[in-house]
Amino acid sequence: MLSLPRTAAAVTVYALVALIAGAAAAGGGEQPLSRIAIHRATVAPQPGAFVDASPALLGREGEDREWVTVTYSNPRPSKDDWIGVFSPANFNDSICPPENEWVEPPLLCTAPIKFQFANYTNRDYGNTGKGSLRLQLINQREGFSFALFSGGLSNPKLIAHSKSVTFINPKTPVYPRLAQGKSWNEITVTWTSGYGTNEATPFVRWGIEGQIQTLSPAGTLTFSRDTMCGPPARTVGWRDPGFIHTSFLKDLWPNLLYTYQVGHRIFNGSIVWGHQYSFKAPPYPGEDSLQRVVILGDMGKAEVDGSNEFNDFEPGSLNTTNQLIKDLKNIDVVFHIGDITYANGYLSQWDQFTAQVEPIASTVPYMVGSGNHERDWPGSGSFYGNLDSGGECGVPAQNMFYVPAENREQFWYSTDYGMFRFCVANTELDWRPGTEQYRFIEHCLSSVDRQKQPWLIFLAHRVLGYSSATFYADEGTTEEPMGRESLQPLWQKYKVDIAMYGHVHGYERTCPVYENACVAKGSDLYAGAFTATTHVVVGGGGASLADYTAARARWSHVRDRDFGFVKLTAFNHTRLLLEYKKSRDGSVHDHFTISRDYRDVLACGVDNCPSTTLAS
């Protein structure tokens, strides 16, 4: 590798990346990789310095993730030395696209996929210059190399790097994600591989457990650097996403157990298989049976090996994931309502996230919503013109996860699950009266048959209802601008049972509230006719926690500054339980029950009485 000068273009790009990181940090969503000034990297080889990694070949028994031991030595050690994991393994300037024909590319133009300080597990590293790390790698379609840097993260100097480490088949299909289809008896399977349609045909082998299996084709999508809206997604954060495949499993029999296995038929006639999984088909809409739904927001990803961690960025993410895995037999579907990965323009993190949730998403539908860290970017059509997506402007989220939207770019959709109707809004696009999304929201709320599906749930990322977070209070409000003013007439008219949001990293539950007033007192039991919507903030999935105001509004019934998630259990058409569970141990911290029969749903209340006539 040759040391190249920092160019004006490189400095400009790094300055913008740093600006984005600073803005994200102010909102509690900094991506740790953004702290690395990779455009400033230079070569500073040290005689005797080395990096070794073993084993060099991974996945010998079909594993999609493996632990690697990295050993290293630096004759002139410093507490700022760090190890970067790069993928593709060839991370020098040969893969840097030139800014233009007059400007040389930087030495390094791609951020590592993870990093850790050299003294992380080696307290004596500063004296000996010798150390080792155990790092977990997942199959991400390319090889890996490990590099030792001095100079800290802000002025990295490349001292040594290892030989390549790779999985036996880097292209193998991995990390399937289930989702509800556009009809109640359809499940979609989405997965990632390194096989394009010019090399192999993707498909799913599936069927009722123990019976004859069938084959269903899959469509293939990908996206390019040019579809990113800005840095770092378009520059140092870019990494080829591979190919994303989706198959539609139709005409499912309600409640039966199905097995499935994704595969690729190579054009030489051989087949490459993924692992085998199973799922339970959804119930018929309106079916009276036990139905359990988990809802969470702002989880992000975290590393089991401790790498990439900064300032408690996502300490709760693994706890939340592990609690869901432990209780998976008692979960039917999961809704992750925005701020999914906090990749913030570092595309490698999307693979990392799909690997983290794979035990969940491969078994039950994992439904996602759009948040500011997926969508927002100036001049991209987002309602908010901030830098929170790191230049992604929604593209990875729209491709990596399927949602049953008429237009996946819009990312709003409705879905039915047994006795539930879920209306999922996209707060990163305009929702106000007169907009296309407002018309969608009203249609979703008004078109449900409450005799068959009594439980009507509204989901969105930003708080369109009520929150006592300090960052809202600092703006003199308790919600997103024009949030509930636009939508509370609809919630009240159509008797929305519960509205849930993320964005504020913690938990808060209101009384049944309308126009800032409690229509009923906060309670653990609401029986009889509908009074008003209960608003619940459930943004404590994993990202660094938010603060609440010292003063407390009358509508704020319960709040908790901790990591957790909500579980809804519909026992039948007349009884619904909400539980807020702690991520650390799964304990129930708050709960309430709604007990209501059909005549209670029809009953007249505040601002939701239908017109009547005296005519006989």
Automatic annotation (TrEMBL):
GO terms for molecular function: acid phosphatase activity; metal ion binding. The keyword Hydrolase applies. Its main location: secreted. Residues 1-25 form the signal peptide. Keywords: Glycoprotein, Hydrolase, Secreted, Signal. Residues 532-591 form the Purple acid phosphatase C-terminal domain. It catalyses: a phosphate monoester + H2O = an alcohol + phosphate. SUPFAM superfamilies: Metallo-dependent phosphatases, Purple acid phosphatase, N-terminal domain. GO terms for cellular component: extracellular region. Residues 292-507 form the Calcineurin-like phosphoesterase domain. Its EC number is 3.1.3.2. It is found in: Secreted. The keyword Isomerase does not apply. Residues 51-169 form the Purple acid phosphatase Fn3-like domain. Residues 176-280 form the Purple acid phosphatase N-terminal domain. Homodimer. Belongs to the metallophosphoesterase superfamily. Purple acid phosphatase family. This is Purple acid phosphatase. The gene is LOC100382011.
